């Protein structure tokens, strides 16, 4: 099996090192990750400046771009082959609910999915890397299971996995969940620069709004590993009929006799 591994925290982050060590014997694992932290870059691609690929002493390759850049470059020329699986993470902090829209960790995995390759994004629910060894062990188990059972289908799949920061023995079995929702983000933080200009820092994510049973928030609060299957289609299928009527009603008015 051939596995492409990336992340958004950068190629030197403890999470990607731990994940590589956990899955390296499951196949040929290539690491192509950002040079620096690229959190919250979502699916962004770098289109107006060149990208460079360098190799670190440990064999990891790193790119001066976004997580999606890394996977895109790897799949469109750098590797020279098509991997069986794209894996991203382990992220330093949760990617649940609305976070998935912004997440560079999910963005890297989604780039593989958009190329028709099964993909998994792994995150820990709390920052700080506590019990990272347990998260890496759980990630290995899931990757191993997916390699053995879910690579023979015609359609690719995309999984978003969040692991509580707990010792391995305290982690409960994986549970398939839907995404929850967060409240609106906190207010921006404004400061005055040394030159007298006003600076703005994006505020923190809002607290959970929908953390009912069945959501990723609820599962991880109960100690479960949350597994959420994702798709990319953003179409409001339920509202298509209503929107069609609204748009038709907005057409030109006839018979007024006015010019």
Outline of the structure:
This protein is an alpha/beta fold. The protein has helices spanning 14-23, 67-78, 99-102, 104-114, 132-149, 216-221, 240-249; strands spanning 2-6, 28-34, 53-55, 61-63, 85-91, 119-124, 158-163, 172-176, 181-182, 189-192, 198-201, 208-210, 224-230. 27% of the residues lie in helices and 24% in strands.
What does this structure look like?
The protein is an alpha/beta fold. The chain has a single domain, classed as Stationary-phase Survival Protein Sure Homolog, Chain: A (3-Layer(aba) Sandwich), CATH 3.40.1210. It has helices at residues 14-23, 67-78, 99-102, 104-114, 132-149, 216-221, 240-249; strands at 2-6, 28-34, 53-55, 61-63, 85-91, 119-124, 158-163, 172-176, 181-182, 189-192, 198-201, 208-210, 224-230. The strands form three sheets. Strands 3-4-2-1-5-6-7-13-8 form a nine-stranded mixed sheet, with helices on both faces. Strands 9-12 form a two-stranded antiparallel ribbon. It has a two-stranded antiparallel ribbon with strand order 10-11. β3 (53-55) and β4 (61-63) form a beta hairpin. α1 packs across α5 and α2 runs parallel beside α4. The longest helix has 18 residues, at 132-149. It starts with a strand and ends in a 10-residue tail after the last helix.
Structural class: alpha/beta
Tally of individual helices: 7
- Mind telling me the C-alpha Rg? 21 Å
Overall number of domains: 1
Q: What name goes with the CATH superfamily?
A: Survival protein SurE-like phosphatase/nucleotidase
Distance between the termini: 69 Å
* Rough outline: globular
* Helicity, as a percent range: 25-40%
Q: Strands across the major sheet, in which order?
A: 3-4-2-1-5-6-7-13-8
Q: The biggest beta sheet, please?
A: 9 strands, mixed
What's the pLDDT, averaged over the residues?
Answer: 92
Outline the low-pLDDT stretches.
Answer: none
Number of strands: 13
Instruction: Classify the fold: give the CATH topology.
Output: Stationary-phase Survival Protein Sure Homolog, Chain: A
């Amino acid at each position: 099996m051939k596995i492409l591994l990336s992340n958004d925290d950068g190629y030197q982050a403890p999470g990607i090192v731990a994940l590589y060590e956990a899955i390296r014997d499951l196949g040929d694992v290539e690491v192509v990750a950002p040079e620096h932290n690229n959190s919250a870059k979502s699916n962004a691609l770098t289109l107006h400046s060149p990208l460079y690929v360098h190799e670190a002493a440990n064999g990891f390759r790193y790119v001066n771009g976004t997580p999606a850049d890394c996977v895109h470059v790897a799949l469109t020329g750098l590797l020279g082959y098509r991997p069986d699986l794209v894996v991203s993470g382990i992220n330093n902090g949760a990617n649940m609910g609305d976070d998935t829209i912004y997440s560079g960790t999910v963005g890297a995995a989604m780039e593989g999915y958009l190329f028709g390759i099964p993909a998994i994004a792994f995150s820990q629910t709390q920052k700080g890397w506590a019990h990272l060894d347990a998260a890496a062990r759980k990630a290995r188990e899931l990757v191993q299971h997916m390699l053995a059972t879910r690579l023979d289908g015609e359609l690719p799949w995309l999984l978003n996995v969040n692991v509580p920061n707990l010792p391995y023995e305290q982690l409960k079995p994986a549970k398939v969940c839907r995404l929850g929702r967060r409240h609106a983000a906190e207010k921006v933080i404004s400061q005055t620069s040394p030159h007298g200009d006003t600076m703005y820092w994006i505020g923190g994510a809002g607290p959970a709004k929908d953390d009912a049973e069945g959501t990723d928030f609820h599962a991880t609060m109960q100690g479960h590993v949350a597994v959420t299957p994702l798709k990319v289609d953003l179409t409001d299928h339920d509202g298509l009929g209503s929107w069609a009527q609204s748009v038709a009603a907005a057409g030109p008015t006839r018979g007024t006799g006015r010019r």
